Amino acid sequence: MLKLLNFDIIINQASGRYNALSETTQKDLKESLSNGKALLKSPYQLDAYLYHYGDMHRKKLLRAYSHIPESIFQHPFSVIDWGCGQGIASMVLDEFLVKQKFGTGMITDVTLIEPSKLCLRRAIGYIEWTLPNALLTTINKKEENVGSADLCIQENTVLHILSNLVDIPEFSGVGIRRFLSSAKALRHILVMANPFYPEEGRGKRMDDFCDSLNGFHPIYSFQKHIDEWKEDFSCQIRILDNF
């Protein structure tokens, strides 16, 4: 199937809808995002989020994806996008693979997990266009409520994406640990990318979660506060492998 959509087009579409609103509405929407931490409840907020934070998330994720062993992309693998939101992380993965000339044909299946029906509907529409050849499964649940039986993985290698998830207070890691324990024979690569908020104690949550995973070793670790590098945002990345 011909791919007709990519992340640039999606951001441009959302930006066009956002910029068509009045300045007052735009200001109210930006404030309602609470610096990207708010639970999004309207399509207008989804567009505002992509407009204000889409490219920032892309930069974090591209840095993370560039440190995944290239051998992963040379054989068929499954993707689980935990707390997928609008599907940004999966869309950027597609962009990364295309730019690196790996192609996306090795992604056999994508599982989108998201408690917000609004976000999940948007993610489904995007992923059906950006990864048209992958089998798409959706789970409308919180991470902690996902059971092993909910996940039907096609390949022996699974790429788990946790984008802007591990640092939030509501994240438990229970559902992920449950699945990892039930599927120890598979190779699991965990890619985690968050903002880095050491002053709020949220910066420690990622390492606490990593320490709770038995049998995994680090591939890549990176973190910068907003005043520690040239970018105008903070970034925290961890990549783990169980093989």
Please characterize this protein's 3D structure.
It is a single chain. The protein is 36% helix and 20% strand. The protein is built from 7 helices and 7 strands, in the order αααβαβαββαβαββ. It has helices at 7-19, 23-32, 43-65, 88-99, 117-130, 174-182, 205-211, and strands at 77-82, 107-113, 135-139, 157-163, 187-194, 217-224, 235-241. The chain has a 7-stranded mixed sheet, with helices on both faces. The protein is globular and about 55 Å long.
Q: Order of strands side by side in the largest beta sheet?
A: 3-2-1-4-5-7-6
Largest sheet: 7 strands, mixed
What structural class results from the helix and strand content? Answer: alpha/beta
Number of helices: 7
Number of strands: 7
Q: How large is the share of residues in beta strands? A: 15-25%
- Alpha-carbon distance between the two ends: 34 Å
Query: What portion of residues is helical?
Result: 25-40%
Molecular shape: globular
The quaternary organization reads as: single chain
Q: What's the mean pLDDT score?
A: 92
Uncertain spans, ≥5 residues at pLDDT below 50? none
**Secondary-structure element string:** HHHEHEHEEHEHEE
Radius of gyration: 17 Å
